[in-house]
């Protein structure tokens, strides 16, 4: 399944078309399932499917609130599953770090960072840096971000993701091909720019601390 | 300044490499977006083809077609009218290639004048008493 990204465009397009056919034939169930799976690192173009769901709501084939509910529910459940997987494997991190002072320090730093900023990290990973979302869920569970905090930020973030894509699909229903490609490129740009900005902030902070303060 | 930058690089090789990589990807996506925006600015490039994943309602909605015109063009039996079903599956059910359905619909979009009323509730073809 992970070879999708490396497929020739023709094949990837055929795959996408098959998935979109599922939205027509199976309705909101197909949407919920695809959002669920895409939160668990399974490369399904759920954003494209949400656009289509929104467009079908505009044409009268689906009901808008059901489209939003299904996508939102699927995504939140998928994130919860990822979080629980991380949580159940939390002791592996301790075992990995057991014999190395450096690793223990890294783990400690990671836990402190997540304790301070974890909520915001989860929030942005659901929409601004969506490709990192599944990883952030695993990490949040593994390093012990509180469940309630995770759930609140995650549910809010997924709402932006779901409303954004289904809303675009609804409004631009008549030109779905264009809006699909546009949304893909804009989301890629936003994700890359966010990562760049975060790394820049880290570098500037180190600069301010001065050399040798690592 | 340069000495400071070199020092930063030496102490944070991983971080700086990651930053440069991310910057490169950002520029790449930005460039791609600019190119496609130029491409899409031309209305001729915005024509969406009819495809197998679309439903009849979606086709009617997007091409502003009169539902009855679609019914008669595809010669749809009553029980297959306007259910939520993809053209792909509709073609399967009827044992015809999806391309033939698409060709009929494409023909319709080119020959029928657009019409303002949408959805299956639109009035029937033919002269109306008003």
Radius of gyration of chain A, rounded?
A: 19 Å
Q: What is the succession of H and E elements of chain A?
A: HHHHHHHHH
Largest binding interface between chains: A-B, 41 and 40 residues
Proportion of residues in helical segments of chain B: 55-70%
Q: How many angstroms does the end-to-end distance of chain B come to? A: 82 Å
Coarse morphology of chain B: elongated
Q: Count up the helices of chain A.
A: 9
Largest sheet of chain A: none
The helix count of chain B comes to 6
Molecular structure report:
The complex is a heterodimer of chains A (214) and B (130). Chain A is built from 9 helices and no strands. With 214 residues, chain A is mostly helical. The model of chain A is unreliable at 1-5 (pLDDT under 50). The termini of chain B are far apart. Residues 116-130 of chain B have low confidence and may be disordered. With 130 residues, chain B is mostly helical. The radius of gyration of chain B is 26 Å and the shape is elongated. At the A-B interface, helix 1, helix 3 and helix 9 of A face helix 1, helix 2 and helix 3 of B.
Fold topology:
The complex is a heterodimer of chains A (214) and B (130).
Chain A: H1 9-26, H2 28-38, H3 46-59, H4 64-88, H5 90-97, H6 101-125, H7 133-142, H8 147-171, H9 176-209
Helix pairs in contact in A: 1-2, 1-3, 2-3, 2-4, 3-4, 3-8, 3-9, 4-7, 4-8, 5-6, 6-7, 6-8
Chain B: H1 2-11, H2 13-40, H3 56-63, H4 67-74, H5 87-94, H6 98-111
Helix pairs in contact in B: 4-6, 5-6
Which characteristics define this entry?
heterodimer, A: 214 residues, mainly alpha, 0% strand, disordered N terminus, B: 130 residues, 6 helices, disordered C terminus
Q: Can you give me a brief rundown of this structure?
A:
The complex is a heterodimer of chains A (214) and B (130). Chain A has 214 residues and is an all-alpha fold.
